[in-house]
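Quick start: read one record
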Amino acid sequence: MPVAEQHSETFEFQAEVQQLLKLVINSLYTDKDIFLRELISNASDALDRLRIESLTRPEIAAGEEPRIMVIPDPAAHTLTLRDNGIGMSRDEVVANIGTIAKSGTGELLRSLREKPSGEGAAQLIGQFGVGFYSSFMVADRVELVTRRAGEEGATHWESTGDGTYSVSDAEREGHGTTITLHLKPVDRDNGIDDYAERWTLQRIIKQHCDFITYPIVLVAEKEPPVDQVVPETPEDGAREIEEKVLNSMQPIWARSPSEVTEEEYKEFYKSISHDWTEPLETIHQRGEGTIEYQALLFVPSQAPRDLYYVGFKPGLKLYVKRVLVMESYEELLPRYLRFVRGVVDSPDLPLNVSRETLQDDRSIRLIRKALVKKVLGVFTSMRDGNRERYVEFWKQFGRAIKEGVGQDHDNRDALNALLMFESSHDPEALTTLQEYVDRMPAEQEAIYYLTGPSRSVIENSPTLEVFRDRGFEVLYLSDPVDELVVQSLWDFNGKKLKSVGKGAVDLGAKEEGTEELEKAQEEAFKPLLETLEKKLETWVKQVRLSGRLTKSPVVLVGAEHDYSPHLERMLATGINDAPRQRRIMELNPKHPVVEKLRERFAANPEDPAVGDYAEILYGWGLIAEGSPLHDAVRYNQLVAELMGRSL
């Protein structure tokens, strides 16, 4: 390919790319074949992008049939891949190949060092979109010539993977990209096969790229007849070249599920997702009637690393009459199911459409409704039929499912039934809400829960004492998103959800004489409670006797509609001097500390030590729930003075 050297420039790779190249080149990956599937997948993506852009700019496609050419040259020991996709401009070449424009680069490099195995590393290549660099596993030098569709000039890129690359002007007939690998010597002991040999290429492409929707054409010497043992060599030394399509290209989603093998499903999933682990679940569905569509969906085994980032893109491709019209269409499934990968194909949609048009399309709404129902049904079947598998799914994607509780009111009951939480019932096993309800004692009227930063903090909270003594199970909600879940999850199967850290405690019928005793206690403690409330009015709105404490002297709780302390801390993160809610302080009238404090106050209501003890008790309550002290220095001084007086 002619290159105009007068416009040649040499650049250094971004620092992260140099580190990545070193890891790649130094035989980090045991399966070197992954380079070919990555390059072919990139070529397929370029053809997809051309197809989508040509919907609004039909002139750039120029009527040429899309294809991916694989051209080995055994004599020169090179391998060339050529596509007629969207191509790249000079600026795009520098931006896309010289740098990794992705926030997770550092995490990628750490992960590569931690997962040196072939399978784990291959998975990471796909996850982070850096497949092009895998070329250097098998090549000493890589050349690329590319021309952006709609532009006249081409760009030549070249590197030996030594930390620098050159970019120059070039000529190319038509749009697309040509990559030439100057291959390393064959070294099968170290996993480097002969990638200039047609049989090797056919094996890899059939195994990994059979369902690519564009023809992958091998351009090589014509195969000799089967019965010809020794190939005849023409007198002029030139052998006949043939073009042979290597992949079936038959849309797997259009076939009957009974005709598709598990291995075919797995390979198709890998080809569209760039995730080289096997899918956890496969959903092959055909819709007929009001709207006709075919869908092939996959639930990954592992959550993508950027699943909970704002910029994460859903993974469903939209086809119309087997023509890709949108690479990633978010309206096919709600946001909380964004981890589901796959394709949806419908003949009932128009080919030339925009995202805005489809958002209001009745057919899309019907497809979405059917897909959500099917996906949630699969999760329900997994929960009921394979608990261990469902728990693994929940650990990966449960947080996303929880997002749906407040978003998808049409499927509220199905989503609520899928939820799993830690609880006081078992130190390790998760529980569903239905399982919780099935275990409830007859006298228990509500589903109790408590939110907090971790299980250890929650289960050591004083608010649980009376519930533990009564044998009432409490759900431990330690995931940050749980705070949003309980804003929408008010009841389940007729049982209201109630926080054990809010409001007054009413656990049903009391023993005879209990009410009279409580009234007497309230009367005896009333002067002290009023004094403490006035002393602590900056931080508390009420001081009262507790019905939830059996061992601790004090606990801080909220009113029914207050934020939990856990949510308050999350909202205050990064905000200096964030306002705090005034809390309710409850005292245990049976605790020796509280009883002696009442006696001391009764003996001398003006005793200044009573105010000091009030601050200590309030600080005690903050520490018990995991909240920071308002004034740690003051608290330490009070504790030191108390110790000095008592020792």
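Residues 1-5, 101-105, 117-129 have pLDDT under 50 and may be disordered.
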